[in-house]
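Why should sequence recovery work at all? Because a backbone constrains its sequence more than one might expect. Tight turns favour small or flexible residues, buried strands favour hydrophobic ones, and helices have their own preferences. The token representation captures these environments compactly. In the example below, the structure is given first.
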């Protein structure tokens, strides 16, 4: 496997997806700004004194007002506010998800140390983490054991200095030493490639789009309980709330598609890094084949699993929102074979 070629390809594709993320944020902010600028002016035109005008005339007039060169700063201002609100929500999401130890504990994980290991398998896993961290030239991350029978693993944290690696009991029970080395090297690859920080960023980015739902609810309740507002103006405000809610739903939906696409590229990158660290690609291939041919499950029962699906080593989602490439494709890439998988 030419891991450097695959690393360069995955990084290039990740940059394209980041551009699409920013484009989606800018587009959603503009659409919110347009909805507010046009909607508020349209609501004004439904106050007494404008009864002689049709809806079409009022709508055209409201758009002309919003894009008038002397008043376009209102549209820009609303768009900027929408951008800032989504940005602040994104920052909150980043802070909330940045502690890897808390993520592991949310899965019911227990920290493994030299003093707490109670089996040869746990001791072996701890040794492998130390070995692979040394190969990657990073501080040895903490190791957590997740009490799940599904075969899976993940890395979390915002930097290599405070990163953690977590493996499930199912992974510990079903993988040989070489296979577990490949799996842990894969997670170490996520750390060295700064994917753990990236995972937090893209998850927070999608979380930031949910701010639009709160904005829609605020407009809805503000109109519903405003006794001085004309009934037809209230209908316009309700329509504004509905449009903003739809924009929010679409941006979250598209954001999750981009999140899944980003995750798939970083999985290829981590696979390549695992080969680089272990210098034994068959270990990782054999681990994949345990799930691909052995009929084992990667499913995690914990409620937090869906939120962190993009951080898992093995996917748990459908095709459109699949956070991981097919195992056959990952195996083929490691073995330098071509498949028809996307």
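From this structural description, the recovered sequence reads:
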């Amino acid at each position: 496997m030419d891991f450097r070629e695959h690393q360069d390809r995955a990084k290039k594709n990740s940059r394209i997806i980041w551009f699409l993320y920013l484009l989606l944020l800018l587009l959603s902010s503009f659409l919110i700004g347009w909805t507010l600028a046009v909607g508020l002016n349209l609501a004004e035109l439904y106050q007494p004194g404008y009864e002689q005008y049709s809806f079409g005339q009022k709508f055209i007039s409201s758009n002309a007002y919003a894009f008038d060169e002397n008043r376009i700063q209102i549209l820009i201002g609303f768009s900027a506010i929408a951008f800032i609100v989504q940005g602040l929500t994104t920052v909150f999401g980043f802070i909330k998800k940045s502690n890897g130890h808390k993520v592991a504990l949310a899965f019911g994980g227990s920290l493994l140390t030299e003093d707490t290991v109670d089996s040869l398998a746990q001791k072996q896993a701890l040794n492998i983490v130390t070995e692979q961290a040394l190969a990657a030239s990073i501080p040895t991350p903490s190791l957590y054991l997740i009490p799940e029978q599904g075969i899976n693993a993940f890395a979390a944290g915002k930097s290599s200095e405070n990163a953690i690696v977590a493996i499930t009991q199912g992974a510990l029970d079903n993988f040989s030493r070489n296979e577990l080395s490949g799996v842990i090297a894969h997670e170490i690859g996520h750390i060295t490639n700064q994917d753990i920080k990236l995972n937090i960023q893209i998850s927070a980015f999608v979380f930031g789009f949910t701010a639009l739902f709160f904005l829609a609810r605020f407009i809805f309740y503000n109109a519903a309980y405003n006794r001085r507002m004309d009934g037809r103006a209230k209908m316009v405000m309700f329509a504004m709330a509905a449009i903003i809610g739809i924009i929010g739903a679409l941006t979250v939906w598209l954001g999750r598609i981009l999140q899944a696409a980003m995750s798939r590229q970083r999985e290829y990158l981590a696979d390549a890094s695992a080969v680089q660290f272990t210098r034994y690609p068959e270990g990782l291939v054999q681990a994949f084949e345990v799930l691909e041919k052995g009929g084992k499950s990667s499913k995690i029962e914990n409620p937090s699993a869906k939120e962190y699906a993009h951080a898992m080593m093995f996917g748990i989602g459908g095709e459109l929102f699949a956070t991981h490439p097919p195992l056959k494709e990952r195996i083929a890439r490691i073995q330098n074979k071509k498949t028809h998988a996307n």
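A few observations help interpret the result. Confidence is low (pLDDT under 50) at residues 338-342.
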